[in-house]
Amino acid sequence: MRGAYVVALESVSMRDVARVGGKNASLGELLQHLSRAGVRAVGGFATDVTAYTEFLAANDLGNVIESAMTAYGARRLSLDEAGKRVRDAMLAAVLPPPVADAIRQAYRDLARARGERAPAVAVRSSATAEDLPEASFAGQQETYLNVRGEAALLDAVRSCFASLYTDRAISYRENNRIDQVRVALSAGVQPMVRSDRGGAGVMFSVDTETGFPGIVVISAGYGLGETVVQGSVDPDEYRVFKPLLADPACRPIVGRKLGRKEQKLVYGRRGAATDLRRTTSRERRAFVLTDAEVLELARAAVAIERHYGKPMDMEWAKDGLTGEVYVLQARPETVQARRATTELTTYKLKHAGERLLTGAAVGEAIAMGSVCVLRSASEIARFVPGSVLVTTITDPDWVPIMKLAAAVVTDHGGRTSHAAIVSRELGLPAIVGTGTATSALRDGDIVTVSCAEGDVGNVYAGRAEFEKQTLDTAAIPSTRMQVMLNVANPSAAFRWWRLPTDGVGLARIEFIIGHDIKAHPLALARPESVASRRERSAIETLTRGWASPQEYFVAKLASGIACIAAAHHPRPVIVRTSDFKTNEYARLLGGAAFEPKEENPMLGWRGASRYYTDYRDGFALECRALKRVREELGLSNVIVMIPFCRTPEEADSVLQVMAENGLERGKEGLEVYVMCEIPSNVVLAEQFAARFDGFSIGSNDLTQLVLGVDRDSARLKGLFDENNEAVTRLIRSVIESAHKAGRKVSLCGQAPSDKPAFVEFLVDAGIDSVSVTPDSFVRVKANVAAAESKRQRS
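RE: above sequence
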């Protein structure tokens, strides 16, 4: 197998790209250098470039290629005509006998080593100008699966050679200024991993949308991996926090989303290599990978990234017969790697029309345009440049159309599908996996495609109003006072990793409960107490596939908190336990059965008063989720904060219930803060300081209660002022009392974002930190720096 024309994959490395192409060289690199790190790769053999060049020479194909590519470059031939001319000539040609003999012998050696007469193999194309850091060739050439027998193998190798001149490959080389004639191809041959009985997918060692380097993103579908790569299924998705993977006590899977996975590609029958089949309802309700398999893949991704010294894009497969997980290929990630690490471009949606569709957001931009629904890439002639491309899925044939689009929306696919990968490379906002885009949107409709709201992308009717801002984070000044973020949406948490924040001063879990969990905590803790048959049925549907309704709540809440905590680790992330009002709780699924009707919910049964009374079972679920995040996932930077705690005695009751549920202040380093939003928190600050590790001033509620002004009243808005002396005296008082007791004080509220004078007051009062919304962080940081400088001069 080491003779002319064929080489063992185990014997090549990245030094051999010119000999066996980028894909095969990378496989050899994995086999040679990463097996000791626990990365399981598949060996085999590859043809070298001499096999390709002699194939061309023996059939006089060099002249055919040069003539067709010259004619295409001069536009005497269309892309379709030029590519077809070359492919037809190559497919009609014959492999030279010495090349064919070498391939046959290598296949026989492989069969003998495996103890099989005609082992099934995958034949993958590997170009010599492929998978470079600045250009990804994902999907440009062909792969042939479940190839059996010598004759079929030789046909597959010749077809791989011909695929070097698909329309998409020619177009891609032209765009990346790669010579069309001098490029060569190697065919890699590997035994099939029986993922037809297991699963397969794609993973990245960096967050694909934000560039956050602390995350491995894994997509998974049943069967052979082509369905995930092509985007014909909506896969499961997992996110793993890399910094904690080395700790065997941690299980840092911070995100887990169940995909629809409606199809799978398996071995074919009656002579077909592969067959696309519908998955069972049981398969669709289950995750493809176990936690142990997710962590194994994530550790492999980290090892591969460390070896290459750059973010990586990888394909993997799980053998359903042996249970083993393999890395099939690895190439440099090409989008986030090119972004300036200090540059942050943000989009903020201000006003939008009716929301028409949702799906997985690709990128972070917003675009508008008129809809163009296409069913096939052959319809390119009717695509109007600047339109929003709407289709079922895309493959490399769609790239010429995608280059003309303002945005892309697809029915199927996940964040690692072809549509997602190419949209990132082109800088297009895309929403994939909407399910119904091609039927819900009509040609000519004006829509806004928004990927600026987190992981979930939204298509809105009409033209929306939005803001775009680009800043250099290196220019943001440093300050003594810490400036932290207010965060609610876990799916947007990684967007802000480039900001030089000091952590999260307020993570509001109401968003997670309302948008991700959707049901009242007590309706999940005690579903039998929900009287409405319709709501009980809705809860059963919502929690289907989970071990119990309680586990559904704990897992979903833990995942949301974990995403926020991971994005800022190891900096502190202060998570406030639920602070819905009773009328807000009642609007959740099943909530009406558990909530009283109050005349003034703002001052009613909210915050701490719920946790040790009738809401106790719901609070227990919140505690379980927080304990899981800190102790199982390993994100011990999470600090728990109790809202609206009226008296020290109430604090004692809450802390006792927390301890009963495994969250004991001081144990495992747990800190517990209290919101300072009631005058009693200030008056009795010393007593609260004896029970809590810090204070967070809720300036909106505190101002409301001190001045007796409804913060939402339009008539009284002129009286609502955090700079009022009555308010500032209380704030200064609690800061002094807390510092005397050795406790930190933060403030979360709108005032620091809007009022530079209020920032000056906080600096003068010596507060430790403020927490603001991400869009106002830069402005507040500048105001704090100016206030500190002014104080130093005075």
